[in-house]
Design brief:
Growth Hormone, Chain: A, mainly alpha, 459 residues, 0% strand
């Protein structure tokens, strides 16, 4: 068993027996009432996150517009992967050494600067288009890599803060609330990006993100001081090595990283969306936004009806089953895409040229993927916070952020490269089968993972 900070309540995860009827199945907002600081951080993060996902979609549209290459879109994640991995490890370390509020402020200001740089680049590209040419693509790769680094440090630190703002019995409920905010980000952000890109253009889409970012910064600025608990240490390799040594002897936490990495590497079809909108079902940027939003709707619905999660204690098995369902929906997405590719629909720009029947089917598959992935995420994040001591949470959150953001980047490279040499339907169809099979093998191989009990959490 790990030790919590002095004075922290015991981690009972007792269900709220006073809740009755439908309310027992709805998300519990007790964490927002228990901690105003958490509430401000949550609200600000949700608003700024909408802008962040707008930019994620807009960057893909911008690079596809310049290059007309799905592989080039996938390289956005591939190029930033190694720097982001290093940033996650380093950022988690400094979150365990320095005041976490200060780390968040510095990382946020750096992210803000990278967004403003994207605004400038997009206006430059717009100017060059008027002259019949395009901007080079490498500055976009450079700025998005800087943004990935600063966002990774910020997210790793933010995750380690939650355990200091809330008592342990509210952690799974807070994670579910984070799922709602994430669902709102991924629903509203990409959909808004598609509409804005089609109406006011990409430069102004990036500019709106810069404005929305202020809400997240205010939530961070109003946090209390969050210095390191326990004896003071110097940042450096020994501290990082200590975190890696802890992870080496934490099979359940390590397994939570591995299974998510598998799901994100082989099961994500997002990098295919621009090509689907342009060449298969029509709709262009509107289709990209709609498909991305569909996955987020599934995420948000899972969190919204998460009132019963406190009754689930076998988190290892719950994560494995959720990821296998995710893989099944990935297979379904591949099958639907194959049918759409073989159809006789002639895609066009805007909703008038869209094959709505295929768009709806793909949207349902994405909703299923989002719902199952969020169920896995709730239990994975709760496991990390519960089973690790506070002085180790920053480093573990750093690894967690590397996995949840690095995995999709590997997935973008996998899907983009495989689609380039085969067909658009092949990456999700093959990847979903791989996900289901690998999770089954790993779950059977590790007994501690199968028997993990949240009432007696062990790393």
């Amino acid at each position: 068993m790990t030790q919590d900070p002095p004075g922290a309540p015991r981690d009972t995860e007792a269900p709220a027996s006073s809740r009755r009827g439908l309310s027992r199945h709805l998300v519990d907002i007790a964490p927002l009432k228990a901690s105003p600081a958490f509430a401000r951080l949550w609200i600000g993060g949700a608003i700024s996150g909408v802008g962040a996902f707008m930019t994620t979609v807009a960057v893909g549209l911008q690079i596809y517009d310049i290059t007309e290459s799905t592989f080039a879109v996938g390289l956005v994640g591939g190029i930033s992967l190694v720097p982001m991995v290093l940033a996650g490890l380093w950022g988690g370390m400094i979150a365990d050494v320095f005041d976490r509020r200060r780390v968040l402020i510095v990382a946020s200001l750096s992210s803000w600067a990278s967004i403003l740089a994207l605004v400038a680049l997009a206006f430059w590209e717009l100017h060059l288009q008027g002259e019949g040419t395009h901007a080079p693509v490498w500055p976009f790769y450079l700025v998005t890599t800087v943004n990935a680094i600063t966002s990774t440090v910020q997210n790793a630190t933010r995750g380690s803060v939650v355990g200091r703002l809330l008592p342990p019995e509210l952690l799974s409920r807070a994670t579910a609330l984070n799922g709602i905010s994430f669902g709102a980000m991924v629903t509203v952000g990409p959909a808004l990006a598609g509409v804005l890109a089609a109406t006011i253009g990409l430069p102004w889409t990036f500019a709106i993100d810069a404005v929305l970012f202020t809400a997240g910064f205010l939530g961070i600025w109003m946090l209390p001081s969050l210095p390191r608990l326990g004896e003071r240490v110097e940042a450096g390799w020994p501290v990082l090595k200590e975190g890696l040594a802890f992870l080496k002897n934490a099979p359940n936490i390590r397994m939570s990283f591995i299974v998510d990495l598998i799901a994100m590497t082989f099961g994500r079809p997002y990098v295919l969306f621009p090509a689907l909108g342009a060449t298969v079902i029509g709709g262009g940027s509107l289709t990209v936004g709609a498909l991305t939003a569909a996955g987020a709707i599934g995420t948000m619905l899972t969190s919204l009806f998460s009132g019963r999660i406190a009754h689930v204690h076998r988190h290892g098995m719950a994560i494995s089953r959720a990821i296998q369902v995710f893989g099944a929906f990935a297979v379904l997405f591949g099958v639907i895409t194959m049918l759409a590719v073989r159809g006789d629909h002639a895609p066009g720009e805007g909703w008038a040229g869209t094959d709505f029947s295929m768009l709806i089917l793909l949207g349902l598959a994405m909703a299923g993927m989002g719902a199952s992935d969020e169920l896995s995420a709730i239990f994975r994040q709760t496991m990390i916070i519960q089973a690790a001591p506070d002085e180790m949470r920053g480093r573990l959150q750093g690894v967690f952020i590397v996995v949840v953001t690095g995995g999709p980047r590997l997935g973008d490279m996998y899907a983009g490269a495989l689609a380039a040499v085969t067909a658009l339907w092949c990456p999700p169809l093959l990847g979903g089968i791989v996900v289901i099979a690998l999770i089954a093998v790993l779950t059977r191989a590790q007994r501690a993972w199968r028997e993990y009990d949240a009432q007696a959490p062990t790393p």
